[in-house]
Amino acid sequence: MTFFSGQRILLAIGVVVIVATGFAPAIPQDPLYHDLADQRRLFAVPNALNVLTNLLFAWVGIEGLYRLLRQKSLQVLAELVPVYIGFFGGLVLLAVGSSYYHWSPSNASLVWDRLPIALVSLSFLTHLVGEQVSIQGARRLFPWLIAVGVASVIYWYFSEVAGRGDLRPYALMILLPLILTPVLILLFESPWTRVTDVWWMLGWYLLARLCEYLDRTIFDWLILLSGHSLKHIAMAIACAVFLHHLRQRRRLLSA
Questions:
Q1: Whether pLDDT at 3 is above 70
Q2: What is the DSSP string of the chain?
Q3: Model confidence over 104-147: pLDDT tens digits?
């Protein structure tokens, strides 16, 4: 498979996903979304475990930024440093925004949870495009992706305020990285070792989504932890796997 045929397939899949999302019916926010299973308070902290498990995102984000900017110990491409900053900085913002949301769940506070999620997801997608397809293309694409990601969250919120809630654009920003990541890995040869780390990261991410879906069921089983708290833990592990990947991988001699 040639480089250019791989690009065409990648573009075709992206276009199909975008068009399919556009033809899908509007998706309003489920009003029960905020009714999470574990609402226990710890001292002055409401929904304590859902709030406190966000500290894991802060830990991975701060360590990632420190190793990237101070120690310079991560194996990254200098041209894509802003993209890595977007990923790890987004994790720090996610810790703050998600804590704020879980402290007082509502559509208004959920905005500050979803904005950094879009930043982290799209930064990860951009880094893959840059490393496996085109560095310059990724650099040009990055600000546009982030702008569209922010716009998708703002659109969702004001569509809810207007009484015609529509999650489709935001869902697209989350689905595209999930769908295109395995495509990028399979179609393009990585210039780095330890490609399997990305598969582990995807596995932890999918486990996190499963835990979110089974929030109340898991809470009924475990009592100590809910599915949503486990979602935070699994997602933080996925991000920690990526940080470990950037620390341990090496550039292939043939790249």
A1: no
A2: --HHHHHHHHHHHHHHHHHHHHHSPP-PPPGGGG--S----BTTBTTHHHHHTTHHHHHHHHHHHHIIIII--S---GGGHHHHHHHHHHHHHHHHHHHHHHHS-SHHHHHHHHHHHHHHHHHHHHHHHHHHT-HHHHHHHHHHHHHHHHHHHHHHHHHHHTT----HHHHHHHHHHHHHHHHHHHHS--SBS-THHHHHHHHHHHHHHHHHHTHHHHHHHHSSS-HHHHHHHHHHHHHHHHHHHHHH--B-TT-
A3: 999 999 999 999 999 999 999 999 999 999 999 999 999 999 99
d(CA 93, CA 58): 8
Residue 61 in contact with residue 54, Cβ under 8 Å? no
**Per the confidence metrics, is the pTM higher than 0.70?**
yes
Q: Which amino acid is at 63?
A: E
Residue with tokens 């650099």: 139
> pLDDT at residue 1 above 50?
no
Q: Is the pLDDT of residue 19 over 60?
A: yes
- Alpha-carbon span 111 to 93, nearest angstrom: 12
Question: Which residue has better confidence, 6 or 252?
Answer: 252
CB contact at 8 A, 172 and 21: yes
